[in-house]
Design brief:
Length: 196
């Protein structure tokens, strides 16, 4: 099983980043061998949709679970639609977080966090003014209650597989429709350009 952990660095001893869509890196760990690879997040500075883009990118690496802190509504819904469960990190290193996950100590996320968490507006003391001087503060992460032990994730059932296949088919149809529209619009733009 491959698990993606949002991180501030590129190895197992890196601190976990409690932001998902705007993290610097994802460390993807094979739970059986502890082999890992890290990928940088090209979407961390996106003006919008960072969580959606990050979730889609992560799914291309064959991960079966995500461990992070706060997932915004869009990232949460995208991961849900793809069929990748997410688990609440509580800090520490990637290695410690993976060990806690193996022991069933991480809680599965069942609702999204606040929208735009981790952006400048979601940072404590960010911006100028507010009577605190100029410059940016540190991200505020609310204290987390202790997590009760959780059983490890169960393997996908046949019903889950069929549902995922159905969702993949629907997404493929949407993709094809969008590509057809793009093609028609490009053709029309080219025809209009030739007329003028």
């Amino acid at each position: 099983m491959k698990v993606a952990v949002s991180a501030l660095g590129t190895d197992l001893d890196s601190p976990v980043d409690l932001r998902f869509g705007r993290t610097q890196y994802y460390v993807i760990v094979d739970m059986e061998t502890m082999a890992y690879e890290s990928i940088s997040n090209p979407h961390m500075g996106a003006s919008g949709g960072a969580g959606i883009q990050a979730a889609q990118m992560i799914s291309n690496y064959g991960v079966q679970a995500v461990i992070s802190g706060v997932l915004g509504p869009n990232a949460y819904q995208t991961l849900q639609a793809i069929g990748i469960p997410s688990y609440q990190a509580t800090g520490g290193s990637v290695r410690e977080t993976i060990e806690a996950f193996k022991a069933g100590l991480l809680t599965q996320v069942n609702q999204p966090g606040p929208s735009h968490f981790g952006m400048a507006g979601g940072m404590a003391g960010s911006g100028m003014g507010r009577g605190r001087g100029m410059g940016r503060g540190q991200a505020y992460y609310p204290p987390q209650p202790p997590m009760p032990p959780q059983p490890p994730p169960t393997p996908a059932k046949a019903d889950d597989l069929e549902e995922l296949k159905k969702q993949a088919g629907q997404l493929n149809e949407q993709f094809n429709t969008i590509m057809e529209r793009i093609s028609k619009l490009e053709k029309k733009a080219k025809e209009d350009e030739e007329k003028s």
